[in-house]
């Protein structure tokens, strides 16, 4: 299995740049460039090994070879089913099923999406570890974005910080949301004496959630939500803070009424492809348990 590499033809406007300047322009961070230099990667111009100080000329062919990726010995390949919405050499989008963790944890050390991805990579000759860009709680379903190498992960993470990785969630919450739409801007931090639970607190990190009431009944509401930030349990905490905890979310005040998990689904995911610049949009079908809840609103 060959290491991932990219190859670029240097144009006249790019002539005179050093390799270091050019790679920065590609979005390769200083940390990643150091990994390339010292971690088993390589920099070649017209087939010759060069340093980051080498000055590029028009017509040069720059090849950037990335170091071999090492999978943690604790992350074992397991035949976890993957509902793949899209895959190429750079990104993987899956529709995560509920009751499956994104990554192994102390409570659930195996059978995670990450274990399934490693198994999928092994079967298909992909030399990579798992780079999660968007992560979903164990009981949350829907579209999840995974980068297949370090450069894609670096570029997508930077895009996410700029709000360029968009996610739309559907949730069924207790009570009737009277506002047609609104925004919760309330910082979230850990709840004292708990390693799992979060809460709204002035000492927390900035968290912004936009919501829209899609359908309201006598006792519950279907809400569409968009995250501006990505804090742990953000939607669950913010909706509980509003007085509308998610149905099934017993951790944050919800009740198991017609569903055995929090009624939350990542319905839409859109992002700019890190290598092609194309905007990609994916929809994940709503699972049956949430469909039933929605039909009964």
Oligomeric state:
single chain
Provide the CATH top-level class of one domain. Answer: Alpha Beta
Classify the beta-strand content into a percent band: 25-35%
CATH architecture identity of one domain: 2-Layer Sandwich
Radius of gyration: 22 Å
Task: Provide the CATH topology of one domain.
Answer: Pseudouridine synthase
In the CATH hierarchy, what is the superfamily of one domain? Pseudouridine synthase
Number of strands: 16
GO molecular function: catalytic activity, acting on RNA; pseudouridine synthase activity; RNA binding
Catalytic activity: a uridine in RNA = a pseudouridine in RNA
Protein name: Pseudouridine synthase
Pfam family, one: PseudoU_synth_2
């Amino acid at each position: 299995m060959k290491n991932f590499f990219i190859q670029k033809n240097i144009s006249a406007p790019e002539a005179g740049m050093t390799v270091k300047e050019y790679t920065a322009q590609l979005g390769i961070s200083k940390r990643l460039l150091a990994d390339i230099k010292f971690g088993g990667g390589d920099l070649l111009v017209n087939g010759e090994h060069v340093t980051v100080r080498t000055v590029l000329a028009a017509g040069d062919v720059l090849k950037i070879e990335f170091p071999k990726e090492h999978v943690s010995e604790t992350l074992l390949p397991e035949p976890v089913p993957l509902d793949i919405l899209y895959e190429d050499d750079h990104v993987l989008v899956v529709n995560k099923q509920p009751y499956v963790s994104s990554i192994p944890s102390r409570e659930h050390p195996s059978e995670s999406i990450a274990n399934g991805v490693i198994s999928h990579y092994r079967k298909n000759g992909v030399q990579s570890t798992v780079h999660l860009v968007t992560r979903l709680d164990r009981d949350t379903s829907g579209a999840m974005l995974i980068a297949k190498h370090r450069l894609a992960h670096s570029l997508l993470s930077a895009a996410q910080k700029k709000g360029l990785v968009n996610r739309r969630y559907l949730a069924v919450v207790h009570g009737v949301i009277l506002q047609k739409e609104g925004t919760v801007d309330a910082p979230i931090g850990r709840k004292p004496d708990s390693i799992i639970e979060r809460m709204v607190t002035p000492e927390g990190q900035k968290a912004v959630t936009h919501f829209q009431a899609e359908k309201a009944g006598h006792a519950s509401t279907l809400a569409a939500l968009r995250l501006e930030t990505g804090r742990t349990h953000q939607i669950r905490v913010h909706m509980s803070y509003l007085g509308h905890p998610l149905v099934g979310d017993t951790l944050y005040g919800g009740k198991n009424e017609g569903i055995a998990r929090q009624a939350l689904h990542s319905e839409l995911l859109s992002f700019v492809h890190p290598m092609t610049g194309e905007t990609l949009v994916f929809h994940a079908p709503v699972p049956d348990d949430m469909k039933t809840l929605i039909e009964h609103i």
